[in-house]
Amino acid sequence: MDRRDFLKFAALTAAGIFLPNEKASAYILDTWEPPIRKLFLQFTEYEQRPSTEVIVIHHAGFPDGDKDSSAEEIHKFHQETNGWAGIGYHFVIRKDGRIEQGRKLDAVGAHAYHHNKNSVGICVAGNFNFVKVPDVQMDSLKLLTAWLCQKFKLKPTKRGVIVGHRDLNDTTCPGDNLYSRLGEIRRYCRDFE
Ligand SMILES: [Zn+2]
User: Fold this and answer.
1) Which phi and psi (to 5°) does residue 148 adopt?
2) pTM (2 decimals)?
3) How far apart are CA 70 and CA 15, in angstroms?
4) Distance, CA 25 to ligand 1 centroid (Å)?
5) In the chain, which segments carry CATH 3.40.80.10?
């Protein structure tokens, strides 16, 4: 096992993905998926995304504070209040590290104005203008982002590939305490390349 596979192996083991033996492990290292909770949310519209070049990281920065919003809650809010097809993000990462599926991964999202046609949106639950990102939540974010880079053949250290919402639109999202850690996420993903 080379250094890269070893790092992958260590990260997947830490995430609770079982790697039984070296032969099976080699297969798993190529085909692994992070544990994603599928919610089967109902959307009023669906449009397939033409390309995937950018991963946009968000927080659920409710001004009233730091909340562990679920994909279901955000889905309801985006449908009923915003009048959208459904949740705008493709994933929500809860404070305990659970990854929830939002919009279908191949659909055009609604999370970064003018940048939805070529991007995947991940929402990390909480307001990181005020609080730090819990370790388990950060671990899931890194794992999910690494998987997306592998899946869509993206180069994580290339400028503009893993970005914060504030890099694209006029917003403080995803909060200073998460935005300041994007370099750490890019380096982690680089080890999965
Ligand atoms: Zn955002």
Assistant:
1) -65, -40
2) 0.91
3) 21
4) 36
5) 51-190
Ligand 1 centroid, distance to 138 Cα (angstroms): 17
Q: Count CA atoms closer than 13 A to 151's CA, side-chain side.
A: 17
What is the 21 CA–ligand 1 centroid distance (Å)? Answer: 41
CA of 74 from ligand 1 middle (Å) equals: 13
- pLDDT of amino acid 108: 98
For residue 137, the SS3 value is helix
Q: Give the three-state DSSP class for 56.
A: strand
Token pair for 183: 């370099």
pLDDT per residue as tens digits for the range 60-97: 977 667 899 999 999 999 999 999 999 999 999 999 99
**CATH number for the domain whose boundaries are 51-190:** 3.40.80.10
pLDDT computed for residue 182 by the predictor: 98
What are φ and ψ of residue 107, in 5° steps? -90, 155
Cα–ligand 1 centroid distance for 167 (angstroms): 10
Using the predicted structure, report yes or no on whether residue 180 has a pLDDT greater than 80.
Answer: yes
**8 C-alpha to ligand 1 centroid (Å):** 29
Summarised one tens digit per residue, pLDDT across range 137-168 is 999 999 999 999 999 999 999 999 999 999 99
Contacts 24+ apart (CB under 8 A), 10-16: 11/142, 11/143, 11/146, 11/188, 11/191, 11/192, 12/143, 14/139, 15/139, 15/140, 15/143
